[in-house]
Amino acid sequence: THYYPSTSWWEWAWKEFYPLKVSEDFAAMRRAGYRIVRVWTDPVIDEKVLRSMDVAIQLASDNGIVLDICVFTQWVRQMGFERPSGEHVLFEYRNIQDFNVVSFSLRNLDLQREFVSILGRRWKNAGNIFYNLANEVYLKDPDELQMDKEVANWEDIPDNNGTLRDSLLFRKWANEMTTAIRMTGASQHVMPGYMFSTLDGGDVYLGNT
């Protein structure tokens, strides 16, 4: 099941955080038989957000629940994070015209890596989490304006548009994000995310192999 841990939806889920209420909710979920609960990260993470998620991870563990942490979603136009120096970084994730790229992005890859590295480093010792990188992915024939220059140098990606290219681009992106998490010392399971194929936008099997 999915959980919104506050009275508001999605991007404020961790900024208005009530630990006693979350503890009650997790206990009720566990009594109902749930053992895996998905939560989203905020698109902009700072110490307040991360501390709320720290508590949620512990409360979930106390109730025998594993958290599926979904990082990237389709509603995001900008993402951001706070560096150890105190610098606040904000970057474009998806453009308003990106109708053919949903729930993940091939732009600003280094900043995306930095974003997931913060999570990986923070929770590398948590035994009750795993990562679900992207929610409900769709990709169809991205052009050069929708991709960082490094994407053109990725190996084994076909030059021609089509389902194979779309699928392998998503899979390579997921591998890049997974590697960034692994480099922090985190060893939790990482899933790429579900890739839609009903509209000829990539292949579920190829994108997640």
Please give a quick description of this structure.
This protein has 209 residues and is an alpha/beta fold. Helices cover 33% and strands 21% of the residues. The chain contains five helices and eight strands.
Question: What do these coordinates show?
Answer:
- This protein is globular.
- Strands 1, 3, 6, 7 and 8 form a 5-stranded mixed sheet that branches.
- The chain has 209 residues and is an alpha/beta fold.
- The protein has helices at residues 19-31, 47-62, 109-122, 163-182, 204-208, and strands at residues 36-40, 44-45, 66-72, 78-82, 88-92, 101-102, 129-139, 190-195.
- Helix 3 crosses helix 4.
Task: Itemize the secondary structure elements and their pairings.
Elements (H helix, E strand, L loop, with lengths): L18 H13 L4 E5 L3 E2 L1 H16 L3 E7 L5 E5 L5 E5 L8 E2 L6 H14 L6 E11 L23 H20 L7 E6 L8 H5 L1
Parallel strand pairs: 1-3, 2-4, 3-7, 7-8
Antiparallel strand pairs: 4-5, 6-7
Let me know the number of strands: 8
Distance between the termini: 24 Å
Describe the global form: globular
Order of helices and strands: HEEHEEEEHEHEH
Count of DSSP-assigned helices? 5
How big a fraction of the residues is strand? 15-25%
Radius of gyration: 17 Å
